[in-house]
Amino acid sequence: MKKHNFSAGPCILAESVLKQASAAVLNFNNDNLSLIEISHRSQSFIDVMEKAIRLVKELLEVPEGYSVLFLQGGASMEFLMVPLNLMKVDGKAAYTNTGAWAKKAIAEAKSLGEVVVVGDSSDTNYNYIPKGYEIPSDVDYFHCTSNNTMYGTQMKEFPSVPTLMVCDMSSDIFSRKVDVSKFDIIYAGAQKNMGPAGTTLVIVKNMVLGNNGRDIPTMLDYNTHISKNSMFNTPPVFPIYVSMLTLQWLKDLGGMDAIEKINQVKAELLYSEIDRNPLFEGTAAKEDRSNMNVCFLLTDSSKEEVFNSMWNEAGIRGIKGHRSVGGYRASIYNAMPLESIQVLVGIMQQLEQN
Ligand SMILES: Cc1ncc(COP(=O)(O)O)c(C=O)c1O
What we know:
The protein is α/β, with parallel strands linked by helices. The protein has helices at 15-26, 43-60, 74-86, 100-110, 222-227, 237-253, 255-276, 304-313, 338-353; strands spanning 4-5, 66-71, 92-97, 114-120, 141-145, 147-148, 153-154, 164-168, 185-189, 200-205, 280-282, 293-298, 316-317, 328-331.
């Protein structure tokens, strides 16, 4: 029996994608060569890269004037690349502090200039999304995290800002519609809704680059990668290929409209059980609940052992909460089938009846 994989990342991918990806490792395009042993300069791989970029543009309706990049170094590298490319020498940027990843982004920006934290939910261990903050107009950019993977909070709206807007969408990219034109840089590690770890998607508005007067190291300069179509050095061919397959799977499913509705149904099913069942409580503020990472606690800790063995026996994996929050975290990314959530909900109901 295939396990019900609720892991926060790396995480579940569609089974059809995994099958195609494993076949391509043995024999890509019926050429009797492996995808991972052919040149990234071969037409076969150039076609993969071009298709991946085309699918990102199509699915997210990326406007003209933006570049789509597949980079390396994870979203963590973007924590540094963003300030290097946008922050002026002696510059200043505004950040929201909504969790451990946001804090890491802030730390990198602080190594290059001043950071103004405009919204901060650290007072309650990041269980809500700060709102109603003022963003100074003299900052070089504003940075936010759309979905806080560890705490299960998600921005439902993005502020109107008097400066450039940058967003870390690592854990909810391609899970819902976004208006890309509101953003100047969007970045996301692949390993949630897109593919295996090893590549980072960056969507960047070309005109915001090259204006900050910094001498940017070659590999950390977005313009290097734009000018070489993400092939300045050897790209991570396997993660890009699997990302392309996932994006095609998403398109075949009906694109962002369809997946947004599916994700809503899945999240509602689980949150409504958490709210109904007296043995459970959600940890995130209701209006900020994430549709990707559902964090909850047992109200009666004496039930922990039996609950853990019940879900374990049912083949559920990866629902232990992050150590900084405790309890449970069910990550229900795009490829998570409704049936797996039904299994978890069934176990929560059985626990109540025990
Ligand atoms: C919101 C968010 N940002 C950044 C990261 C870091 O990503 P990476 O491991 O690709 O550097 C993660 C990883 O889980 C994340 O969830």
